[in-house]
Amino acid sequence: MVKKKKVPSSYTILFSIIFVMALLTWIVPAGAYQVDDANQLIPGTYHTIEQNQQGIWDVLKAPVIGMLGDEETSAAMPVSLFILVIGGFLGVVNATRSLDAGIGSIVEKHKGKEKSLIIILMILFSLGGTTFGMSEETLAFYPLLLPIMYSIGLDSLVAVGIILIGTTVGVLASTVNPFATGVASQAAGISPGQGIFWRIVLWVILTAVGIMYVYSYASKIEKDTSKSLVYDHREQDLKDFQMVETESMNKNQKKVISLFIGTFIIMILA
């Protein structure tokens, strides 16, 4: 019986990287540059230095030093704790299916004017990307949007564009995304709110461009479905993607959404 290959765990990958880096300290010649008062490298000042070869003990204690720090290395514990807490919070939010129900409610309220959903949903998905790095959490929305887009004469690429482009441009701007801006701010020792104005400007521009791109393609398909990039699959897709019932939000889910929004407001102001 052939054993099924498994993807290595995160710990296996991390320890493998540490081991390879330790091995390279015995192979790659060590060197350094002189730096000026602004901590910029001075060209032409490279010189070799004594190798700091790492042994087995160094490999084993590397994760501990990385978390707690030493006289030469700053501690990663504050950043790790920040990611752990935010990640747990988002996990609880996703478990309540509040975001899914919220999107479902919006879809339900816009029956008969589904094309306007392109603008509304792309803004919402972009907000998800820019606030908490929304990405794989969107998988549940594809089965919801695909039938809707086909029912109004559009195609699967419009549904994919709404979700994928929406979240991607949001992540690119990352106004308060704790896994990008938050970590970078912690490392730089500044508040996540510092420089947020320009990040918001970037988010508005990227989101607007993304919406115009998807809306333009949708308008072209609406006038002539044969111009769809996936027109060859249209008949089969119409059979595969049937309309599904959408969820409506309950009181508890509305409270979770309010808490979710409030958390990021506090994070910006803190």
Automatic annotation (TrEMBL):
Predominant place of localization: membrane
Membrane topology value: Multi-pass membrane protein
Highest taxon of the lineage: Bacteria
GO cellular component term, pick one: plasma membrane
Keywords: Cell membrane, Membrane, Transmembrane, Transmembrane helix
Record's subcellular location: Cell membrane
Entry-linked InterPro entries: C4_dicarb_anaerob_car-like, DASS-Related_Transporters
Regions that span the bilayer: 12-33, 75-95, 116-134, 140-164, 171-190, 196-218
The protein's name: C4-dicarboxylate anaerobic carrier
